[in-house]
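Aim 2 progress update. The chain analyzed this quarter is reproduced below.
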Amino acid sequence: MSLVRAVFLATTMLTTSATLAKADVNVVTSIKPVHSLVAAVMQGVGTPDLLVEGAASPHTYALKPSQAGQLQNADLVFWMSHDLEAFLEKSIESIASGATSVPLMESHGLIKLNFREGGAFDSHDHDDHGHGDHAFEWAGVFDLPAGTYKWSFAKVDGDYADPAMKMVILESDDIEASEELAEELLESKDSRAKSHNDALVVSNKAYTLGFDETKEATVFMVDIEKDGKFAFFTEHMPLEFEANEHFFKDGSGNDVEPIAQEPDMGHHDDHADHGGHDDHDDHADSEEHDDHDDHGHGGVDPHVWLDPVNAKALVHIIEEALAEADPANAATYGSNAEAVMSRLDDLVAEIDAELEPVKDRRYVVFHDAYQYFEKRFGVSAVGSITVSPEVLPGAERVSALQEKVRDLNATCVFSEPQFEPKLVATITENSNAGTGVLDPLGAAINDGPNLYFTLIRNMAKSLKDCLMKSG
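Predicted structure tokens:
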């Protein structure tokens, strides 16, 4: 056998061996952009699992049983942070306790920006409910099948925390998107008075709940007509009215826990011994609300992936974590990461050139999530508006939003995939603004290693198409 042929065969065998090497790790990712970058680094070796699919919101996501199994078997879990995927933090600790957790917001070299507050940007603040900034002290989202539920308000140490309080119930899976409407309803003088054993339903009016001093607990029946996710906003923390049993139960008497809440009260199991609530997990810390949120004053905006330069920093930490967990494939992870970073450099140049004609155009967004993209490419939203994707705002709120769009002289108003076109049309009525859709999570894009690049290109195209047409 000639030396050349021997070298060729040896090289072929090594290449084949490397190609056939399978990942010796089970990898789970949180959101689609993270999944895409991890999938790109793992190409030719394995495919990561994705938790938050489609247009689901990571803020309010609830794990499916099959996904709990994926976490249980995981060796690596890539996610952003508590601020974005609060549902995942406790699941990693309890279900994926044997896995290596990789919170990508801690990646070295990330450019981080604080949330924009004030001016034409609607507040992101979720921390200080009950401290004078908001009409509600607590908000929770529940995933509820149709049926009748019982919400109890009990005396603690012989007294109700307050003789009455307001509550709002909205069909919504997103606290942030619904909070402005909830505040408007809670602050309105137009509310419905309810007393012991009265029924509460989803409504665009607040309830004023009166508590019966002759009873140890005042109970309200919550009627849910169809399966769905529902956001409850209350003037007081439910724990302030919780004595010997959980505050919310289904028709069979089982405790019903929120899938998302702010502030996070934790899960409460030992209701028989509560008394002054000393046994509530994390309740002692809840007054300062340090562990939540997401969008507090001065808080860091977690949408870092929308800057491709930040995506390079994410790819670097992804490659390092994969190589450490699966050293047999470290070389492949390394070469894949280099290729992805090169593509990201090219993407920056491509998008920068594409957006050059519209860098002076003014636009408004439904969700202030895009400042990383804006600063990288020299475009800028002039304001944001916060509305619920599920509930059409009342006439007063619509009028205020329409006036804001006109006052800002916005060329375009950009919503997101979860918003109905009718709602967007209502907000832009009587203005010269065009409309477009931005998709920061890639909800409408097929999963995989190319999703991230398509996501950024789609955002640029949507911006350019609307701004050029309306400019």
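The CA atoms of residues 144 and 228 lie 6 Å apart. The two ends are 71 Å apart (CA to CA). These observations will guide the mutagenesis experiments scheduled for the next reporting period.
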